[in-house]
Specification:
Length: about 350
């Protein structure tokens, strides 16, 4: 019978260190052609100026794991309260797992914990191939959910001694430093500028939702590894020449949708005014993470190289790799609620 799992239940089933290993095997399965995926797509419905509905989905499947996964996210966006579902402060994201042999639904999982973990764990996984193993200083720009999870992921992967953090909100960066220092048992300091957080670091993680640069590449020391959550948006020019190795999730061809712009008067008049995302293309020679993890392409080849991983968009295989362990352990530990299988089957062809 399918299982329904909450975020709190999922937290009990997989650790950050385990997640990095699980994702490594998931990406290797892609490189071996034992898995497949479809890049994230975003369906956008303009409701009124400054307010939209978004449905985002991504899929993946793996013979090795015996599962197919659909991750979906349903959001209301507004310029005032940003992203929410139901009411501001609440969110709607689900992972649906399907059994490859039977075709039946295997689980419905609230995605909050897995969503955060799969992003930060992938940044740390890329770091296994792109960062120096002896890396001890991590610089983070951002102080939100992803910044916290990146601190956890990198501290689980490297012998960190010091984490520096900057965000424009002084109170938030101070709280981040206090809370993460206590949680990780590391020296965590709040810096007064992005440059102070980044300069001289072994690893830099930009964890923002900014569409304008938050970091100058000239601040980066030789040998630095950078993970970025925005598609080259967080780094000022020159970007291409700043790094010796560029690793991304997918090569050109993934297209974000257009969205409707304009004023209220233009909307009322029925004017068709659309704009598209300004998405920078990766430089020539960029390689996919699955090919680096799978041994098809080299990662770091010298201590002095500057390397970057653009951790934008994600891949459905992440939810397959993590979902397999979550589902198996939930059944072993009798967590979650069993749902009648017949609720999700019918005798009318689909």
């Amino acid at each position: 019978m399918p299982l329904l799992l909450t975020t709190e239940e999922t937290k009990q089933l997989v650790t950050m260190r385990e997640a990095i290993d699980l994702l490594e095997e998931g990406y290797k399965s892609l490189a071996r052609h034992e898995a497949t995926h479809r890049p994230r797509t975003d369906m956008q419905v303009p409701l009124r100026p400054g307010e939209d509905y978004w449905l985002a989905t991504m899929e993946g499947a793996s013979r090795q794991h015996g599962l197919a996964a659909v991750r979906l996210r349903s959001d209301r966006f507004s310029t005032r309260s940003k992203k929410w579902a139901g009411r501001p402060g609440m969110f709607c994201g689900l992972v649906l797992l399907y059994d490859l042999e039977s075709g039946e639904l295997a689980a419905i999982i609230n995605d909050g914990y897995l969503q955060l973990m799969r992003v930060s764990a992938t940044s740390a996984l890329a770091g296994r191939y792109l960062a120096r193993p002896e890396s001890r200083v991590l610089g983070i720009i951002g102080s939100g959910w992803q910044a916290r999870d990146h601190a956890r992921a990198f501290s689980a992967s490297f012998p960190l001694e010091h984490i520096r953090v900057f965000s424009p909100n002084e109170a938030r960066r101070d709280a981040f430093a206090l809370e993460m220092s206590a949680e990780l048992g590391l020296r965590v300091t709040a810096e007064s500028s992005a440059r102070e957080a980044v300069e001289g670091c072994d690893i830099v993680a930009t964890c923002t939702d900014s569409s304008t640069p938050v970091m100058e590449t000239r601040w980066l020391a030789p040998g630095t590894y950078v993970s970025s959550l925005r598609y080259y948006k967080e780094m000022a020019e020159p970007r291409d020449a700043a790094f010796d190795v560029h690793v991304i999730h997918y090569l050109p061809g993934y297209v974000q949708p257009a969205y409707r712009a304009g004023t209220q008067d233009q909307w009322d008049q029925g004017a068709d005014i659309y704009t598209t995302y300004d998405r920078a293309e990766p430089p020539a020679g960029s390689v996919q993470l699955q090919d680096v993890v799978g041994g098809r392409c080299p990662g770091r080849t010298s201590a002095e190289q500057r390397t970057v991983f653009i951790n934008h968009g994600g891949m459905g295989i992440q939810f397959v790799a993590l979902g397999r362990v979550v589902l198996d352990r939930a059944r072993e530990r009798s967590l979650g609620r069993e749902l009648p299988a017949e609720w999700f089957l019918q005798d009318v062809t689909t």
